[in-house]
Specification:
By secondary structure, this protein is α/β, with parallel strands linked by helices. Helices cover 34% and strands 27% of the residues. The relative contact order is 0.09.
Amino acid sequence: MAVKITIKGNQDTNEYKDAIILKEIFQNEFRSNAVNGEILIISNATLFGQDTKDVDLIVIGKFDKYSIRVKTKAKTSDEELIQEERLLFVNDFCFVIETKRHRAEDIKLEGLTLLVKYKDKYHDVTTQSENQKYALSNYFKDRINFSPYICNFIWLRNVSGNSIKELLGNNINILDKHNYLPNTFSLKWLFQLACIQSIPYNPIDFTTKKPKGYCSFKSLRRNQEFDLNEIDKIFDLFTNIKQGAGDLTRKKIEHITKDILKDQKYAQAIGEKLVIISGRAGTGKTIKLLNIACDLALNEGGRCLILTYNHALVSDIKRTLALADIPDDIDDYSVSISTLHKFFYEILCGFEIGTSISPKGKPFINNYIDRYQSLLEELITYIENELIGDVELQALMKSRHQQIAWDFILIDEAQDWNDFEKKLIYFIFGKEKVIIADGIDQLIRSQRKCNWIQGLKKDIDFRKTTEKKGLRQKCDLIGFVIQIAEKLNVYWDLEPKEDLYGGKIIIKIGEYSKDLHDREFKICKDNGNSAYEMMFLVPPSLVNRVNNQRSFLRTQDFCEMGIKIWDGTNTDLRTEYSVDLQSHRLLQYESCRGLEGWTVVCLELDQFMRYKSETYEDVETGELAYETFEEKREKFVNLWTLIPLTRAIDTLIITIKNPNSKIANILNEIYMKNPDNIEWIE
């Protein structure tokens, strides 16, 4: 039978060429060995759904009695044995390999971290490689319900074995810990490095009570087995999703990858001034930020980071970037997105503000979210007292380049940031590298608008553009939202885009039903959309909380109605975003900013409004108190109510639990005046 070796991937890439060389390395070993087995090599893998999605090479194999002599430690059930040459039987393995084409002089070691130079800056390849291993493990668990033990390697394609030895030098801390492959290597080298990460098992001779003369290497646990045909198919997920994506997703991808900057008045200001994109909900601010980031990456080779505080928006944009084939590699142009809390965590750890040391020797911050504001204030104090300045900042950029050293920072919902966050962004990047989306009076995190232009001069220090057209919703939906805003005493000056005519509103008193769903989902699909484009929003009262785990309360009911969901309220998800074309997104109302769907279902809107009213807290803004507590609370709740109503493009479905609630009465009044445009279901 011999060893069957299959390569999967895009043949026009360097990674596929590396896969061919790797195949030859295996074949050279097996020519002189009567070995049976199977190996699958996947190049340019996309781990769709994972935070780290791009992997150069994945190698999975299984053998029938293949052995090789290597120098390695071994372990019995009771002890670890010293490193010496041993006979190693390889049963199965799973490797993930990051390939780098840097020269030896562009590579250096800092402690246990391997760095490669890109554009005169060094990038952390060790962390990149580790992240790929964990992403692949989660990918396996999500697709086949288990993960093998994965060994990760860094293949330095232009560095010889001798150069790697020179790189390691006399660093005894890394001699038996590194995972570097030279330009050419043998299987002995490969499996010796694998045995560093996964020490092989040495059985005991029950007669002599001593270790037997061989050990075994395996990546699978008992009762686990590789079906390489099945493994092959799970890496078609990205292609299948991309081919089956709905029209709305495809149009979004086409939009964000357009070359638009050359046609915009503010384009010349980017890199020279603060750029502000202002507008109300539904005017396309978030998608424009994404478009600008992709343009800067694709056409100018920039590394762009989008910051938001909305986890659900992070997930949605990561999905869009993946489908648009925008890379997330550390040594190439890229667009990435992160929550601001995650970003500032890296900053604080880098400056050792509030950190402790973990058992693995890495800094971490205990109770980070609870201490977030005070830690930022402490950092600002260090900066203002000149204890942290440009020298320390440049050192931070080098040590955490992948996380911090971006060419451009794009900030969503900038009006809702606080002054500490703004000051730190300006300190790290300067206003010239910053592009912000300003939602005018949509204050959700706080009650005081962040002033990004304080002390700045218009057209000299910043350039502002204001979006007034509703670019998301069809005309009837915009008119409906304006009527609700009037009833709620909220100023909402949004102009409909004339060619986006139509739109449908459905108001259902009581629970969402199977008949309603089947009808509207069919219409959604008939318009060229997938299930992803029909989004559900739920209040906290429909979220189950048990032992710090959250999930949608009506999951079983939805399942019985044949409604398949990706539960964004679930804290135990293995994927960053939905990876199933048949699943609808389901999220909490508070996670909906920046998101959109062809059809949006607002479940129990009245219960969400009640929750926002009951949990409202008055915050001292330092401004004159022109409004009472009740007036401020009502304004806060009413503004929040409008946000989910601006998420739908074509069809907005609202369910009401309490038919006597304030919003139910408002909706009924609007329906009575517009019975031809609104469907009312008791």
